[in-house]
């Protein structure tokens, strides 16, 4: 997967997270926490890829 795809996926996931927080009204809802952790892992993947490409 290319970095552009990762960034698009990240933006989509962030939007879903926003909507999920609005829907649940909670930052500690298990679904919110799970999606947030997936976003964190994707960010780490993007950062590692950038370091490898240097």
Automatic annotation (TrEMBL):
<dbReference type="InterPro" id="IPR018540">
    <property type="entry name" value="Spo0E-like"/>
</dbReference>
<dbReference type="InterPro" id="IPR036638">
    <property type="entry name" value="HLH_DNA-bd_sf"/>
</dbReference>
<protein>
    <submittedName>
        <fullName>Aspartyl-phosphate phosphatase Spo0E family protein</fullName>
    </submittedName>
</protein>
<dbReference type="Pfam" id="PF09388">
    <property type="entry name" value="SpoOE-like"/>
</dbReference>
<dbReference type="InterPro" id="IPR037208">
    <property type="entry name" value="Spo0E-like_sf"/>
</dbReference>
